[in-house]
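Reopening this one. Same input as before:
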Amino acid sequence: MQNAVILINVDKGQVRSVAERLADVEGISEVYSTCGRYDLVAIARTRDFESLAMLVTEHLNQVDGIQDTETLNALQVHSRHDLETMFSLGW
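Same output, byte for byte:
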């Protein structure tokens, strides 16, 4: 499994609409609106690196209102929670 944090800036006044569209994109598990340097943070979880690359380079480009992104590909997960098990249970 590939995990990534995608930092996103959007057009003025488009935070909610872009977040809602992103939440419907396959491979995006969560979208957070934030304050600070970035407008949104999306958590991507894909089966492999090629799927992550497709998500970032093709699927996100189809979402109107995104100005720019910065993708942070996770190398290791450091967590007390078994996230994969939680998601397989529907949490």
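So the earlier flakiness isn't reproducible anymore. For the record, The chain is about 30% helix and 35% strand.
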